């Protein structure tokens, strides 16, 4: 098992890569435990859950809204949750976002942890303390900054993840390599077979590297005042594509990475062989690099992005592989 600590402004969070769901109870001692999960994860893993009340919602992004949040608040009240209770979200990024948001707001905040069960949740959604829900189609527009006490990344649970979801998680792994780790990018290029067959050692290494990269950025800028913006690489265009086309988050991030690579090429920051390497890698991982969505519709969504400032937006560009720059780009240029 690999351990990564995040020292937030007020909190300490421990990420355990390779720990098992079966050991969850060890980390919630003497507290009343409440479990939040989704319908798929409940069906597959309920037998491994510790004894506790369980709230399960219909799997999928469509559940990540304030209606589900309110239903969970009512369920907590009905089951006599109090400020000393402890919430654990067991699932992918949607479960982590919902559980983290509910725990951060119920009774002005109670302690929580995650068992991250999708690759995307293990390398991204469970790490960093952002917990948000969607409103009227706008992603993560309502949310909190608050760190979980712990995150268990149970690698064995990835075996039951649909292959398209596994690929989606790899989009975030590639993103972390593009931001800060050229050698990790090369390692992924050279070890596609081991990665796609879910070699445990390889996954433990890749997940740990991703978590470490994200953790170091989050520690330096917990509340996204500056540096943390680099984590939005591929996400400005990606979120908009996700909204317009309805493809999954990770697939949309892959399209967003390709868009960012092309823009970086236009601006002379990335060479065309580097751009081609990235496009090939994403394709080899089973990820899309283009979208059939109407660019005008995608652009209209970008106009409403949280990161907008008057007539421009902060955009993350690639400066070679393993290095990024954040530039304010005008809507005209996009
Ligand atoms: P998800 O939670 O919907 O999971 C994807 C699918 O996989 C779901 O159908 C789920 O039921 C299923 N699943 C999860 N674990 C499984 C397992 N072990 N076996 C079988 N099926 C399993 O989506 P996701 O891709 O994990 O996460 C995407 C969400 O995360 C988005 O809402 C995104 O906005 C959010 N996110 C948040 C942050 C953050 O910092 N808060 C960062 C990145 C992404």
Describe this structure in words.
The protein has 334 residues and is of the alpha/beta class. Helices cover 43% and strands 20% of the residues. Strands 1-2-9-6-5-3-4 form a seven-stranded mixed sheet. A three-stranded antiparallel sheet has the order 10-11-12.
List of distinct ligands in this structure: nicotinamide-adenine-dinucleotide
Strand-pairing-aware structural class: alpha/beta
Number of helices: 12
The whole-number mean of residue pLDDT values reads: 94
Secondary-structure element order, N to C? EEEHEHEHEHEEEHHHHHHHHEEE
Within the largest sheet, what's the order of strands?
A: 1-2-9-6-5-3-4
Question: What does the largest sheet look like?
Answer: 7 strands, mixed
Strand content: 15-25%
* Count of strand segments: 12
What are the low-pLDDT stretches, counting only 5+ consecutive residues below 50? Answer: none
- Radius of gyration over alpha carbons? 19 Å
Topology, please?
Layout lengths: L1 E6 L4 E6 L15 E6 H7 L8 E4 L8 H13 L7 E6 L1 H13 L5 E6 L2 H7 L4 E6 L2 E8 L4 E4 L9 H18 L1 H9 L1 H5 L3 H21 L14 H11 L3 H18 L5 H13 L10 H8 L5 E2 L2 E7 L5 E7 L4
Parallel strand pairs: 2-9, 3-4, 3-5, 5-6, 6-9
Antiparallel strand pairs: 1-2, 7-8, 10-11, 11-12
Helix pairs in contact: 3-4, 4-5, 4-8, 5-6, 5-8, 5-10, 9-10, 9-12, 10-11
The structure holds nicotinamide-adenine-dinucleotide (NAD).
């Amino acid at each position: 098992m690999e351990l990564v600590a995040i020292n937030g402004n007020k909190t300490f969070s421990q990420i355990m890569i390779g720990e098992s769901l079966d050991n969850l109870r060890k980390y919630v001692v003497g507290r009343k435990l409440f479990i939040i999960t989704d319908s798929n994860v409940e069906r597959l893993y309920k037998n491994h859950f510790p004894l506790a009340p369980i709230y399960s919602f219909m799997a999928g992004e469509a559940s990540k809204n304030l209606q589900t949040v309110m239903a969970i608040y009512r369920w907590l009240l009905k089951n006599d949750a109090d400020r000393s209770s402890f919430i654990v979200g067991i699932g992918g990024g949607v479960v982590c976002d919902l559980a983290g948001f509910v725990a951060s707001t119920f009774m002005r905040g109670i302690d929580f942890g995650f068992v991250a069960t999708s690759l995307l949740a293990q390398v991204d959604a469970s790490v960093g303390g952002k917990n948000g829900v969607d409103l009227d189609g706008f992603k993560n527009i309502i949310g909190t900054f608050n760190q979980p006490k712990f995150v268990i990344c149970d690698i064995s649970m990835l075996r039951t993840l649909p292959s398209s979801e596994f690929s989606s998680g790899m989009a975030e792994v590639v993103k972390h390599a593009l931001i800060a780790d050229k050698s990790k990018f090369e390692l992924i290029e050279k070890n596609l077979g081991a990665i796609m067959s879910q070699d445990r050692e390889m996954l433990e290494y890749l997940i740990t590297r991703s978590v470490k990269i994200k953790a170091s950025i989050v520690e330096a800028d917990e509340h996204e005042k500056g540096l943390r913006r680099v984590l939005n690489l591929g996400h400005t265009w990606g979120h908009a594509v996700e909204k317009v086309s309805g493809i999954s988050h990770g697939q949309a991030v892959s399209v967003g990475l390709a868009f960012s690579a092309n823009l970086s090429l236009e601006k002379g920051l990335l060479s065309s062989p580097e751009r081609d390497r990235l496009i090939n890698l994403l394709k080899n991982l089973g990820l899309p690099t283009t979208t059939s969505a109407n660019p005008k519709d995608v652009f209209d969504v970008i106009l409403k992005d949280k990161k907008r400032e008057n007539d421009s937006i902060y955009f993350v560009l690639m400066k070679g592989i393993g290095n990024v720059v954040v530039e304010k780009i005008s809507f005209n240029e996009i």
